[in-house]
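SUBJECT: protein chain
CONTENTS: sequence, structure tokens:
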Amino acid sequence: GQIGWRTGSRRLLLFSTDSGFHYAGDGKLGGILQANDGNCHLDSNGMYTDSSNKDYPSLSQIAVKAKENNVNLVFAVTDEQKDIYHKLIPLIAGSEIGVLDSDSQNIVKLVRDNYLAIISKVELIVENSDNMEVKIRTKCKGTIEKETNRCENLSLADQVVFSVTLGVKSCPPKGQEMKTIKIKPVGLHDTLTVNVRIKCQCDCDSDQKMMENKNHANCNGNGTFVCGMCVCNEPYFGVKCDCVKGEVTPPEKDRECIQDKSTTTLCNGRGECSCGRCLCRETQKGTNNYYTGKYCECDDTKCSYYGGLICGGLSRGQCICGVCNCNSGFTGDSCGCSTDKSPCMYNDLECNGAGVCECGKCKCTNPKYFGSHCQECEGCDQEKCRAHQGCALCNRVTPGVLTQEQCKTECPRTTAVNTIRKDTTRCETLDKEDCFVYFTYFYDADNNIRVEVQREPVCPTKPNVGAIVGGVLAAILLIGIGILIAWKVLITLKDRREYFAFLKSLENAKWETSGNPIYKNPKVQYKNPMHTILSTSQLLRPLTTLHLGKRVTLLLRVAGERMVSTVWFLCFTTIFCSLNPIGKLSAQDLRTDTLTPTQENPCLKEKTTTCGECIAISTLCAFCTDAEYDANNYPRCDLLTTHQKLINNKPRCKDIVNPSSTLVKSRDDRLIDGDRDRYAVQIRPQQIDLELRPNDPQTFNLTFRLAENYPVDLYYLMDLSNSMADDKEKLASLGVKIAEDMSTITKNFKLGFGSFVDKVVMPYVSTAPNKINSPCPGCEKAYGFRNVHPLDPNATLFRDKVNAAKVSGNLDAPEGGFDAIMQAIACETEIGWRNRSRRMLLFSTDAGFHYAGDGKLGGIIQPNDGNCHLSPDGMYTESSNQDYPSISQVAVKAKEKNVNIIFAVTNDQKNIYDQLKPIIAGSETGVLASDSQNVVKLVRDNYLAITSKVEMIVENSDNLEVKFRTKCKGTEEKETNKCENLAIGESVDFSVTVEVKSCPPKGEEERTLRIKPVGLYDDLTVKLKLMCQCDCESPKQMEDNKNHEKCNGNGTYVCGMCVCNEPYFGDYCDCDKGTGTIADKESECIQDKNTTIICNGRGECNCGTCTCRERQKGTNHFYTGRYCECDDYSCPYYAGLICGGLGRGQCDCGNCKCNAGFNGTNCGCNTDNSTCMYNGLLCNDKGTCECGKCTCTDPKYFGPQCQECDNCGQEQCRTHQDCALCNRTNAGVLTKEQCEKECSHTTAVDKIRNGITNCEYVDQNGCFIYFTYFYDDDGTLRVEVQKEPECPPEVNVLAIVLGVIAGIVFFGIILLLIWKLFTTISDKRELARFEKEAMNARWDTGENPIYKKATSTYQNPVYGKK
């Protein structure tokens, strides 16, 4: 009334500000604790009188009050405050927001725009709809009706229709059947009032009827007759209340329960007889399906199924006493047959008039018809197509055989279209130009025949004679060129083979220099006088880098030398030069020195200067500490195998540092079960000492066993707000049962109890004087958390403590449970957690939770410190001073203290707490019954769920890579740190791999890892020491070798090298930076004293020592040797790698040093002779093995193992033929006795083996008998024969004759067609030429005196004489 709001008006409240706002709880900062009551407190001057007495209202209070008084709020705020107020729009129904200018000059537009925005949308709300279901649907301004209570973009006078559906799922308490529901738009006074009466009582059981029918005659005067049934008075029972409880039922009543009077079976054995009436039992326990019938003779679950449902489901029928009673529209034993004939209709005829409809499918009675609707028949389509052909042709762009008048008269239902429809019968015909005309016929909605014809015909494309002839000629030319290329390749290969043979003979030649008068220098190259022409393979390498023109020029020059035909060679070279892939392939085969190996030496990738850096690269790398090693410019960090190479029968390096990782199990106690006087051991080993080299992964096994009698500590943390009062009573009665149930799992069990409500601060708890001490009837003062009963094995004491605890109350829905969880976990001593136990915290509530940041609502800004703050009486002392903990704080603390949390919450809160499971390791969620009656089962099930899975975690593993692999309970090992479905007493093995990729900062090489299961105390301690420094560079060694004599007293001797003091330098610190370069020092860098070339031009002289440079900048490949004379990257290649790769050999100063098992200039020759063995003999004893291949020395033998020879196999086959035949199923020429005596080495098998000499024999039936002979490991001859012969299929003479005839006819027809094609083309050309001449002819009628008329022809007797 003070503001002047009108009752039926649109109420707008324009709120204008340039700042934020205070809300509930902020008043505490000013000492105001009394909550805002939401009432009017204005004096006669319009001043708010309780501003200093009452707190600010909350957002929900404003939203409720605005909705209650139908007020629309418009927040007119500055741009910087827009985001804050924008968050209020979804909270306060019917509110809007607008941006206010700095001087509010846009206020008029802002009011108008927001008013239009508010009235342009309508949102219906329902008041007083508890326990009712209200659904609102509307099309709004569209065409599709949707389930929504909103409609937007409305204009003045627009109307929108809502469809409102009211429903109730269950009846309310008696006396509450009448209810008034209000449906109204947000912000408006207009209301639809719905007076609802919920029908929860029939007229026949009304109070009046009950009174009238009391002690009714139908109930023998012993009960009330209600809705056709008797409700018996005590102690009577039965259908007509004619039996008395406690008295023996008369025999005649039992006989009323017997269907077959010849037996004594009551209720057919399917129920119990109660006063002459059968009470039928379930058909199967727990299914809620009961037998029916007077004598329980019916089983309504035995009917036929359709679609997986009895009688097809309730929509099709119901099962009554084992028989399906079908609904209207369905028939059949299972109601699976629909009586609807619409699926059978075709052209408005049932099954096209050629069949009957059964169960929605057509059964064709006319044998001529078929198809899903009996719409198809043999020959019908062609007849109808011919009938409509004339109309189809006359309605095209070019008319057909009918005239225009006939077409209009006879074809009124024929239409020409661009494309005919596809879902009808398609017809086709040919027009005069032999083009296809497509048309179709169908029946319209009035069952009239309709014909559609495609306007444009489809004409076949004419053959392109020129293309055909050109293709044939191109094919002939291509085949010819292919033959020439093949010939050229063969010649090239032959030339190449001869050239390499010449090179090999040249290498093996021994020139006697003393007898050769023209001998000059071994570096002089000789040219084979017989090989004067470059082979194509030699040209191939430079060709790949030349342009096309240069390729052709070079090849033409060679062609001239080889005297090849100019024309054909030009064609060949043009094609050849365009084949880039061939050139690339050849260039790869004939490698150049610019190629780099694909398998690089990892030790040389980076220029290392210390031993520690070297051993950290790879386990393949080692460091040489020889004092003289630098003299040859060898890298000190190199492969271990390179350091061990022999040079002049001495290893290249004598002092090699190559440490290995070591792993020692320093504590490895066996796994044991727990007992009252001893702790269980569940993990083995318990401690490992590991010295780990970088990039050297170490693997060890870890075994976890789920021990029996493992100590369990269960702390029950309960929400004792008023809504949990009945849960508390039930928990007190079930406490002993929890302990008894857990004793079946473990003998060592303790139980504790704690409670919580919320922070005793507004707005969480009412601090009004009349509420703070007694927030509800029978309630005690609210508190944050209380440790009521520390962990103890006495379950009776637990029950008494829970009984003594009182409930309390608070204001808001969420509770302060996180405060309680944090204190219950952090206060180990106060709660009584044991060190080596399974710690379980059961958190029970029916509400949500507050978390970090919510404390600001109560003026609490100090963050939660995660420490214990319990008073001696168990109260949380910092509840009103510290904020709630965050979810991550709870997760970290639970992991740190090995506590498994079980969230036992009501069903409506389960989804919220389920989201905490992946965040808080080892947590579970269970649904708590409304009165906590299922708490025993919940504790047991969640304990088993937690203990049945193990998840390994690693602590303090920064910069380390730890991998777990396990088979768990399967057969295949997988990379995972989890295993589930474990039972008590079962064990699981984990394979743990620890690896470090790089060294940490100095001083952090030692650390301790803990590998442990989530939620358990047991762990494996790994004392790790990273090997990032060699012993020779330890601080002690550095100090002992300071100013060493090997460094001329000017440096520290470290790992075979000198680290020089300033200003000295050089390998031995014998040069001074201040004295400049000494000439005699430079002379020490010259290999050939007859020259002045320092380090062979491949390096720089540094104090008498050559520092070699890279072969090619950026490759990290350096020259080596005392004077940089060696190139370790110029050795021959094999398979794309220098010296065949590190597996075969290494390059040492230009020569390949092959590993064991390989030889040759490029280590490409394998010394393994296994590939040359045949029947235990090297090359069948007929040749020698060279590079894993046989070279046959006996000219008679050949083959990869010299196992083949001319006519040898046939002689052996004939020798063993008789034994092979007699050992088959059918005996051969030998008798049975001869076969057993002479052929003991012969065996019949289903299939002879491959890879050895095979023989064959043709029997009298023309079938092949296959057998083979070979030598076993003992050198004994063995013969195997295939049991079943292989017979060739019979020749089909008739098919061959007919095929030959058909082939001759086919090719004859092809030739005739080709001839006809050419003659037709020729005739058309002649006809065209004739017509052209006829058109150009000019007849002069004046010269012929007897010319009369153009249509008459006369013979001129004089004309022939002219």
Residues 465-508 form the longest helix (44 residues).
